Amino acid sequence: MSTDQFPLTRSLDSPAHLTWLLAEGQRLVSFAKASRLAEGFAGLDAQGRLPNEAIAETIITARMTHCFAMAHVQGIPGCLALVEHGVAALSGPLCDARFGGWYAKPARYGDTGKAAYLHAFVALAASSAVVAGSTAAPQLLQAASEIIERHFWSDEEGALRESFSRDWQQEEAYRGANSNMHATEAFLALADVTGDSVWLDRALRIVERIIHGQARANGCQVIEHFDPRWQALAQYNAANPADGFRPYGITPGHGFEWSRLLLHLEAARQLAGLATPDWLLPAARGLFDSACEHGWHADGAPGIVYTLDWDKRPVVRQRLHWTHAEASAAAAALWRRTGEAHYQGWYHCFWTFIDSHLIDRAAGSWHHELDPDNRPSASIWGGKPDLYHAYQAVLLPALPLAPSLATALARANVTK
């Protein structure tokens, strides 16, 4: 696609655009406040209501806590109490007091084991809650860091192990790029909050393995699934290609997300005075370019398809809101890093799509899924359970690439 049709103004930094982003963020936060229930936060339906059978889930509780922490730092009223509620839930009913770590939901709903993906978000939530001034957050941060170091981080592999049984005795024979991607994000935040650069070193080792060692040798397509020896599992979930967390094949949205994280890692290491590889920017460019080339308009209609096969043909053609949020954020990050106009063209492209198809001005928030004809659907993601991707997409364009989000917001408020 040519981006010549989009006006290449400096709108990312224009007062009008930043004001619009701020207002959209406030609208998203206001909608998400209804997700609170006794044991944490739960997913909302398409109308913004808690379903009758709503259950506090750790992943939603952690993401909401992270977002409400950033909202409080921004100065949005009523959010600190929600942060404290999230921290209390993650320190109480969602935490395994016997074996350590976190359930996917309160224990009475059954044993779901311990997943790296989920624990990365608990660490992210705790770090943001510390920045927001939550009184109990430092203890949660320490607990999350210790669990990651004791059970998930493999210094030998330079990455996270994937999942364990509740008592940590049985380990899943699988390694995943998705959990390690979110660990990279969490490690950047942990480095900012703790001042310990070991987290930046660990983030770099993850990126070296999954991006520098695997994706760049695969045409800048992220390989998602591996066995415990980090051999690619190309046909993983071929019979269940639309899985919400482990889909088959190539996920263009993750190409965008990794692209942005590489730039954050580069900036964070430079800010800390650490040795920084010169391949991070070229890798970020390659991931972004590949996701645009093969993911956008892949089936002839506007939008980014959820997945592709290894021949770059669409498999799951639904358009998910998080994919477009990450695409816009990656375009903004690359423009901020390079100043090159075509990234701003893509930024306009993605936000035009979001504005036209994903923002729900009638019921609130964003439609989380569209069908191949760009009509609201719910085959993969029902309702509107997730504030995280959309809210970050409206925050990131106004912030530097380092430090991480909550810390950057806090520093921006101090300098105003």
From TrEMBL:
Specify whether Isomerase is a keyword of the entry: yes
Keywords of this entry: Isomerase
Pfam families (UniProt xref): GlcNAc_2-epim
Q: Kindly indicate whether the keyword Isomerase belongs to this entry.
A: yes
Cited InterPro entries: 6-hairpin_glycosidase_sf, 6hp_glycosidase-like_sf, AGE/CE
Could you say which protein family the record assigns here? Belongs to the N-acylglucosamine 2-epimerase family.
Instruction: State the protein's name.
Output: AGE family epimerase/isomerase
Q: Which species expresses this protein natively?
A: Pseudomonas urmiensis
